[in-house]
Amino acid sequence: MTEQGIKEKIIGFMESNGLRITAQRQAIIEAAFSTDEHYTAEELLERSRKVDPSVSRATVYRTLPVLVQTGLLRELDLGKDQMYYDPNYANHPNHNHIICTDCDKIVEFEDYCLDVRESVIAKNLGFNPGTVKLRIEATCEQLAKTGTCSRRDTVGAK
Amino acid sequence: MTEQGIKEKIIGFMESNGLRITAQRQAIIEAAFSTDEHYTAEELLERSRKVDPSVSRATVYRTLPVLVQTGLLRELDLGKDQMYYDPNYANHPNHNHIICTDCDKIVEFEDYCLDVRESVIAKNLGFNPGTVKLRIEATCEQLAKTGTCSRRDTVGAK
DNA sequence: CTTTATGCAAAGGGTTTGCAACAAA
DNA sequence: TTTGTTGCAAACCCTTTGCATAAAG
């Protein structure tokens, strides 16, 4: 899906839900989907203000849940103090995250085998497998062995 | 592992790390492992105070990381505002959690197939599979279909 | 005695919210 | 107009921390 397509979908979602298309919201949408990196609310505020300096922190916090509702942005709990937001679900709806607890970096991956197994487990337990989300935390093998992690500051959030 | 065995292991851990065995710490350990339910720091404080009313919130917050260090208690990020603590890892070291985002209940499960797949993925990406942790979020199939969730208030955290 | 631990209360920090001014439709 | 939205700043809430006192070893 193109960036333009994403914006249109969101505008459409807002219109059909009686939400107003304000300049601030457009700036936030622009900032939210013009990157493929994960970001925090604070970072999104900064980037939104480059589009429209009048955007306030409160509006960012109030708009984020709307974007998440569309399914095109996903809230990511990476185990840090803040929430992160991932704009890559439009193009990779089934990706998961593996998080290095040492170097704080995130690698996105897709694995059909895991998806199937998740679905089976969820279904067996009476859950809806359609909305299963997965997070893996791990430590760096290399860091454990050599005391340094080549990933550190080199592999950013995709 | 018996509750008694757990307590002894933790006392041993503390002694060998130069930590003092205070009445408050003993009360917290007692409270932490006399249940198999998940709990928050606040709940642990309450339960600790039933053992020793002099326990303060600060001491609970300062002791929790020590218990987590022993590996017998695990900090659980369930996507809520607070952290949860899970005392069941002593007896089920490989269990995972499936969390219903509708009814807020948690089901613990073990799945060898999933464990293996996790390890393979982690290893392929250069992570240490020994410390992989997993969390699944899902919605209730029943709730989606019938508008009500039989699990609600009936299946507690194991 | 020496050193660590404790309780209290205040501080932190991300997120939410009340409210009066403002702007979309 | 009418109703939803905004910015500001204060409020929230869990967790952490500074400090003087207490107690373990």
| CATH level 1 class label of the largest domain in chain A | Mainly Alpha
And the CATH topology of the largest domain in chain A? Arc Repressor Mutant, subunit A
Q: Spatial order of the strands in the main sheet of chain A?
A: 4-3-5
Indicate the CATH architecture of the largest domain in chain A: Orthogonal Bundle
Assigned CATH superfamily of the largest domain in chain A = Winged helix-like DNA-binding domain superfamily/Winged helix DNA-binding domain
Q: How much of the residues of chain A is beta strand, in percent? A: 15-25%
Characterize the main sheet of chain A: 3 strands, mixed
Indicate the overall shape of chain A.
globular
| SSE-based structural type of chain A | alpha+beta
User: What Rg of chain A, in angstroms, do the CA atoms define?
Assistant: 18 Å
The whole-number mean of residue pLDDT values of chain A reads 87
